[in-house]
């Protein structure tokens, strides 16, 4: 049996299965009551399947909580800094590789105005949050007017449409602003190299400045 499970058994447990996070026991699912007629081998198999499917989701939630506990943020915008973005990108690529899903990276740069004030940045973020998927994470990037957006489980078509929507809402509501975008897509069936998706997004961003 898994280490530590015996200590949790109060003598009433019918079924108990460990939840494994990062190759270590994180918790236990314990079933103490079940109609006798409902119990069979298929019940055990179904419970194990549900637990295995839930483990990657739990791992992502735990990682998110740990990330924000240690995140350094910009005092004006409240967004994580570039160093935190690099850490998150590495973790996100590894997780996407494990789950064989996809990850979208969007780089946003404000070309004009040359020095937007904090209130303008707050307004920009409020507008963007109206159309960004809830799973989007926003970070400061290398330069003051650059931002990085990470979006789980989004392919190239969805990313292209999202950038058009962002361009539209910013152009319509932020008069005189000129945003440009670069993006990269990581697919979980590729080698998990975070720098590849980053380089592609930076190249597309630089092309628009020529």
Strand content: 15-25%
Biggest β-sheet: strands ordered side by side in the sheet: 4-5-3-6
Number of discrete helical segments? 5
Q: Report Rg.
A: 22 Å
Element-level helix/strand string: EEHHEHEEHEH
The stretches of 5 or more residues where confidence is low (pLDDT under 50) are: none
Number of strands: 6
| Most strands sheet | 4 strands, antiparallel
Amount of helix: 40-55%
**Shape from CA axes?**
elongated
The rounded distance between the terminal residues' Cα atoms is 63 Å
> Mean pLDDT, nearest integer?
82
- Structural class of the helices, strands and pairings? alpha+beta
Question: What this model shows, in words?
Answer:
- The protein has about 210 residues and is α+β, with helices and mostly antiparallel strands.
- About 45% of the residues lie in helices and about 25% in strands.
- The chain contains 5 helices and 6 strands, in the order E-E-H-H-E-H-E-E-H-E-H.
- The protein has helices at about 40-70, 80-100, 120-130, 155-175, 195-205, and strands at about 15-20, 25-30, 100-110, 135-140, 145-150, 180-185.
- The protein has a 4-stranded antiparallel β-sheet, sandwiched between helices. A two-stranded antiparallel sheet has the order 1-2.
- The longest helix has 29 residues, at about 40-70.
Summarize the structure.
By secondary structure, the chain is of the alpha+beta class. It has helices at residues 41-69, 82-99, 118-129, 156-173, 194-207; strands spanning 15-21, 24-31, 102-112, 136-140, 146-152, 178-187. The N and C termini lie far apart (63 Å).
């Amino acid at each position: 049996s898994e280490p530590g499970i015996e200590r949790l058994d109060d003598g009433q447990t019918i079924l108990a299965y460990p939840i494994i996070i990062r190759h270590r026991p994180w918790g236990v699912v314990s079933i103490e009551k079940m109609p006798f007629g409902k119990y069979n081998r298929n019940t055990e198999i179904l419970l194990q399947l549900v637990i295995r499917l839930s483990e990657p989701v739990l791992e992502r939630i735990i990682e998110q909580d740990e990330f924000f506990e240690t995140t350094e943020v910009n005092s004006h915008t409240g967004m994580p800094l570039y160093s935190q973005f690099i850490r998150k990108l590495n973790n996100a690529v590894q997780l996407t590789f494990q789950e064989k899903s996809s990850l979208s990276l969007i780089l946003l740069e404000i070309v004009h105005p040359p020095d937007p004030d904090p209130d303008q940045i707050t307004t920009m973020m409020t507008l963007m949050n109206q159309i960004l998927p809830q799973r989007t994470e926003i970070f400061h990037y290398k330069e003051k007017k650059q931002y990085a957006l990470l979006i789980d489980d989004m392919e190239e078509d969805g990313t292209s449409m999202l950038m058009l929507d962002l361009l539209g809402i910013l152009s319509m509501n932020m008069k005189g602003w000129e945003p440009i975008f670069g993006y990269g897509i990581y697919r979980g069936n590729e080698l998990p190299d975070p720098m590849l998706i980053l380089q592609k997004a930076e190249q597309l961003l630089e092309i628009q400045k020529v």
